[in-house]
Write a structure and sequence with these properties.
Structural class: alpha/beta
CATH class: Alpha Beta
Strand order of the largest sheet: 3-2-1-12-13-14
CATH topology: Purple Acid Phosphatase, chain A, domain 2
Number of helices: 5
CATH superfamily: Metallo-dependent phosphatases
Largest sheet: 6 strands, mixed
Number of strands: 14
CATH architecture: 4-Layer Sandwich
Helix content: 10-25%
Distance between the termini: 26 Å
Shape: globular
Bound molecules: fe (ii) ion
C-alpha cells in the first residue's frame, strides 16, 4: 500500500505558491498511490471562500483522499464548513494491511490543540487490530526542533503520547509546524510533515511531503523535497504487534 502524507496547504495564503501546488498534484497523481492523507490547515482562516478554493484544489487529486482539519480550518466556524464539504472530522480507513484513524485536534479560534478524553476510547477501539496502525492528527505530540518556542502543542500531549506508546502504534502523523521531522520513541514513530506547497517555511527548509510504503509488515517512509524530487529515507522498520 502506498500513502502520501501532505499537510499545511493553506491554499488561500498569499504565501501559497500555485506552481508548487500544481507540481504537488502532478506528483500525487503520478505516484500510483492508494491514499492521500492530509493532516490539516488547508485554509488560512476557515472562511467559506477559502474552503471553496481548498475543495477545488483537493478535488484535482485523483487517488482516494482522507483529510482532517487543522487549527486554521477551525477558525470562524470553519469546522462546520469542513464537515459540510469533506465529511467527518474523525475519518477511518482500514484494509487487510493497515488501519488509519484521523482525529480533529483543533479547537475553534485558538491555536492550541487537544484530542480530549472523550476520544481516547476511539483510538483504542479503531487501532487495536494486529496490523500496521496509523494515527493522524494536525498538532504534533512531541515538540519539533527549530520551530521556535513551543506554545501550541496538544494540551493533553502527555496522555496521547502514553496511549500511542502503550498501544505500540506504528506511525503518528501530524503537520502544523511546517518543518518535517521524525521522532522515534519506544518503537513508535512520530512524524511531522512540512508544508507541501507554501512559502510559510522555516529558515532554508523546502516544501515537502511524505511517501509511505507498507508491504505486509514492512514500513518505509521517505520525505520528498517537492522542488527537487529528492527523497530522504526517514523510516525503515517492521510493524511490531502490540504488547498490550
Ligand atoms: Fe499550518
Ligand atoms: Fe496549524
Amino acid at each position: 500500500m502506498r500513502i502520501a502524507h501532505i499537510s499545511d496547504l493553506h491554499v488561500s495564503s498569499p504565501l501559497f505558491e500555485p506552481e508548487w501546488g500544481d507540481k504537488l498534484i502532478r506528483c500525487l497523481n503520478e505516484a500510483d498511490l492508494d491514499l492521500v492523507l492530509v493532516t490539516g490547515d488547508i485554509t488560512m482562516n476557515g472562511h467559506l471562500y477559502e474552503y471553496q478554493l481548498a475543495k477545488e484544489f483537493l478535488d484535482r487529486i485523483e487517488p482516494r483522499i482522507m483529510i482532517i482539519p487543522g487549527n486554521h480550518d477551525a477558525m470562524n466556524d470553519g469546522y462546520e464548513l469542513f464537515e459540510e464539504l469533506f465529511g467527518t472530522r474523525k475519518p477511518f480507513f482500514e484494509n487487510e494491511e493497515v488501519a488509519i484513524l484521523g482525529l480533529d485536534s483543533s479547537e475553534p479560534d485558538i491555536n492550541d490543540g487537544q484530542i480530549g478524553r472523550h476520544n481516547y476510547p476511539i483510538i483504542k477501539e479503531k487501532l487495536s487490530r494486529d496490523k500496521v496502525r496509523i494515527l493522524a492528527l494536525h498538532h504534533h505530540v512531541i515538540p519539533v526542533p527549530k520551530t521556535g518556542r513551543e506554545w501550541n502543542i496538544l494540551s493533553d500531549a502527555g496522555d496521547v503520547l502514553s496511549i500511542c506508546i502503550d498501544m505500540d502504534l506504528d506511525l503518528i502523523l501530524s503537520g502544523h509546524k511546517h518543518l518535517p521531522w521524525v521522532w522515534e520513541l519506544q518503537g513508535s514513530h512520530f512524524v511531522t510533515a512540512g508544508t507541501a506547497c507554501t512559502r510559510r517555511l522555516k529558515g532554508r527548509s523546502y516544501p515537502s511531503y511524505n511517501l509511505i510504503r507498507i508491504d505486509g509488515q514492512h514500513i518505509l517512509l521517505d520525505q520528498v523535497n517537492l522542488l527537487t524530487g529528492e527523497k530522504k529515507r526517514m523510516i525503515d522498520k517492521f510493524h511490531q504487534p502490540s504488547r498490550s
